[in-house]
Automatic annotation (TrEMBL):
Residues 252-391 form the Flavodoxin-like domain. This is Flavorubredoxin. InterPro entries: Flavodoxin/NO_synth, Flavodoxin_CS, Flavoprotein-like_sf, Metallo-B-lactamas, ODP_dom, RibonucZ/Hydroxyglut_hydro, Rubredoxin-O_OxRdtase. In the N-terminal section; belongs to the zinc metallo-hydrolase group 3 family. Gene3D superfamilies: 3.40.50.360, Ribonuclease Z/Hydroxyacylglutathione hydrolase-like (3.60.15.10). Its cofactor is FMN. Pfam families: Flavodoxin_1 (PF00258), ODP (PF19583). PANTHER family: ANAEROBIC NITRIC OXIDE REDUCTASE FLAVORUBREDOXIN. Signal peptide: none annotated. PROSITE patterns: FLAVODOXIN, FLAVODOXIN_LIKE. SUPFAM superfamilies: Flavoproteins (SSF52218), Metallo-hydrolase/oxidoreductase (SSF56281).
Amino acid sequence: MYKLTSIADKVYYVGVNDRQKALFENLWPLPYGVSYNSYLIVDEKTVLIDTVDVCYSDAFLRKIADALEGKSLDYLIVNHMEPDHAGSIRLLRQQYPDVQIIGNKTTFGMLEGYHGITTGLYEVKEGDTLSLGKRQLMFVMAPMVHWPEVMFTYETTDKILFSADAFGTFGALSGAVIDEDMNVDRFWDEMVRYYANIVGKYGNPVQRALKKLDTIEVNTICSTHGPVWRKHKDKAIEIYDKLSRYEGEDGVCIIYGSMYGNTEQMAEAIAASLAENGVKNIVMHNVSKSHASNVLMDVFKYKGLIVGSPTYSNALFPEVDSILSKIEIREVKKRCFGYFGNFTWSGAACKRLAAFGEKMNWEFIGATAEEKMSLKEDMYEQCITLGKAMANALKESKQSI
């Protein structure tokens, strides 16, 4: 019934697309949907790598049956236990009661917790191998990319890396599965957004995993979200490497809140100064309108960060405070930081923004601006100075690389 995509000889894509869910993890918008990728290898032994969200288990199980053509399923490899990938395990076990479930010790604790499964388990550790007949699999532990049980599975013949969530993106697959068969332009920003929203805190574990991959040859990357990377695999790895080192591009993200437009006028003046001083990549986010998902994407994307807030009940504007909390959780490093504020009777915003920058250990650009009530000429000039200071800081940062 299903026309299945072959990743290699007898290696099939059996994933599904979700174009219904509005928010991933009930947090992050999915304007282009999302795919849940699963892969089946048919050899002397058959092995399924990860499952899909339980909402799509019916189509998923029929795809597996079509690919098996009457064969039994010998193994299920669980690279990642998050429910969007492990949600169909219990139903799969009901369909194939003799299937052995392969994972590591941490996997099995979660398997019992989510599904009550404690039997038919096959534990693997770093570097262990499994022969399927003509093909052999090797297991690479990748804890905290981005859960503690995560591991990669490496197929040695065609050099395929089944990478769990690593190198994944938001965005459903529209017909084609492999990158060389589609226009992948829209997936690059969705990869950055996915990383910033989901993986962002775990830069050091990602770096450790990437170092392990340096020791093996990879021709194809099969992530659990987004395209199969073959033609563009090096770019996918490069993006994850850069993001996990917190190496922002040359540009500035301006984040601000504004109740009556005065703080917004300051943001506009700063942006104009940045442009006048040669900064071409400038993005502005009004936190009352921009979704945190997109704000975080640009915080990860650009080296410069400027935050502005009015004083609100002797604290930060609530939506500014909220996005700063999300940035802090992700432990974003290596940013050039500036800030500005506005108040009517008692200024507190700039003090709190300065304290936040110090907590994050960011490089302060040496200029700020804080206006009382409406924007006046002298403070307008301070906004211009702030923009120029950020532009200079980015130039100096670029020269030091």
